[in-house]
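Ticket reopened. Same input as before:
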Amino acid sequence: MSLVIQNLHARVVGGQEILRGLNLEIEKGRVHAIMGPNGSGKSTLSKIIAGHPDYEVTSGEVLLDGTNILPLSPDARARAGLFLAFQYPVEIPGVSNANFIRAARQARLAEGEELDAVDYYGELYKEMDSLEIPRSFTARSVNEGFSGGEKKRNEVLQMAMLQPSYAILDETDSGLDIDALKIVAAGVNAQRSSNVGMLVITHYQRLLDYITPDVVHVLVGGRIVRTAGPELAHELESKGYDWIREDLAESASA
Amino acid sequence: MSTEVISQIDVDRTRGDFHYPEQHTFDAGTGLSHATVDYISDVKNEPAWIREFRHKALDVFLSKPMPTNWASQDLENIVFENIRYYLANSQRPTRSWDEVPDDVKRTFERLGIPEQERKFLAGVEAQFDSEAVYSNMKKALGDEGVIFVGSTEGLKEHPEIFKKWFGKVIPTGDNKFSALNSAVFSGGSFIYVPPGVKLKHPLQAYFRINAENFGQFERTLIIADEGSEVMYMEGCTAPKFETATLHSAVVELVALKGAKIQYVTVQNWSANVFNLVTKRAIAHEEAEVRWIDCNIGSRLTMKYPGVVLKGRKARGEVISIALANNGQHQDTGAKMIHAADETTSNVISKSISIGKGRSTYRGQVHIPKHLKGCKNNTECDALLINSTSRTDTYPAITVRGSGNSVQHEASVSQVSADQIFYMQQRGLTEAQAMSLSVNGFVNDLVREFPMEYSVELKRLIDLEMEGSVG
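Engineering reply: fixed in the latest deploy. New output:
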């Protein structure tokens, strides 16, 4: 059981190619990290897997437990078990957080089946408590007026409530101070299990001090150029991305 | 985003889109003349002053041009000689649903009126074409001196109150359609709340058009005496006919010193109805009038509820939601006429345009130079769903004098592709996402409606949003 990305080529609709033959397999129960310099295609990768309409796949497949999800709409992909924690969570004025998550849960039920409100709120409060989100956030509009840290915590809350099989966390550390980072990381760690495969996308190694990955990949120029254990993140941190680029240039000329 | 694609929007109006075969004992025939006016006055057995009032009004109507110079050209498509102006079976409503004819009773049962009455209403009037078929109020309110009857009964049984205020808030010649209503009015409510009486539960009127090529012209007059409080709610539906139907009401409210009136409308006419309504209130000293208005249906609605703030410290408010779908034009707004010191007015309007729908806000705020301490706040926000949707804002704010303040904010926004993608990523379909987004946009105003209506409103908005993406 895994999320497999096979030879993925993708571009901005009608524009420049961003992913150029990307291969990756995220097994259930494992945490993969993707690191890379700015402009390497990290965030694009997450949007393409989730089905953002600004991008088009020119070749390749994304298999979720064996099924190619690329022909599916973004919502069908989500209901199939894919979750994306956004780098920039979107505000939805007038829609309360509790109602939004409830609607998302309801969307996963069969036609005619109704969510049990008491169970739902019980579960919601429990997850909010562990993420140290005040109860008042149930009634607040989704992400509206939230601080950077509150938005990221809210993403992790939604992940906990929707229990995806595969979760992509896009720059979840950006805009967080160290205290907020610890809370968010603890929330993510609490959800690590054999039932979920995670892909953590980050520019900095800092997040990986708190969410220890099983595998680290380096993305440069729309391809995975290095794959190794967690020690790779530390190496990147001390040597910078230029080291990888130079290394690549050397092997190309050799 | 596929929101650019406009498919045929076929709104499910099943709840209101049905009708029974017509059986009318009283029919004024097709077209409008002084003979039509006499027919209506005869069957209603009206006093001479009302007959004269009607005839004068007809002359005013005939002499006035259509307001197409500033409003919609679509008005020219109303063919007055093809309309039937009075259709009824009886001039007296019953006090019991059991005595209402079966098909009419079934109509209101399908619309859920008797059930609502049992659950939360203090009184109900149900109008079917030209006349109320049912009118009843909780007995305790009658004992307190509250009057809640049809306009015909009001003018006959309570002339001393009726005559004092009738046609005083909205004169016959206010506009072409107020003149038309004054000539052929029938039905509507007459309400009087005695001093200090505060109604805990709302009174409700339901206006139902069943006949084709028909015009409904109800006339409502509400007088809240000193320190009293009343909430009045009205709903309306009609079946979808091939030909245009006309609804042209006149509603006059009088809030005497310290009184409070809330007037709630959920307008869901079918998309062939011209809905041209004149609504205005006079608020005396420290009185408060709130118009809470939602327009979802009709082909063309022109409605600008107003408050004349006549007494010191009077307050006026218009809360308005409009939703214009394909083939619809919601031309709505508010009028706040400040005529005393320290009066305040508040206008909050939100409109949603879907497909080729068009919404227009027209606001008039008038604060003359000699007044002190007056305040107005106006906010109008428009949401466009598709690139073919249209919205226009025409605020006319005249504020003179130094001691008065005015705030005006307007915004136009579109549901962003990022917002829809975010919601879709959580598993909601594009249509569900759109619907949730629109409900969010109007949510703060929907809360102003009584609970039973706000639930219905959300359902109606969901129905309208179905098919807006595709």
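Residues 148-162 of chain A form the longest helix (15 residues). Residues 2-92+165-253 of chain A form a domain with the Rossmann fold fold (CATH 3.40.50.300). Please confirm and we'll close it.
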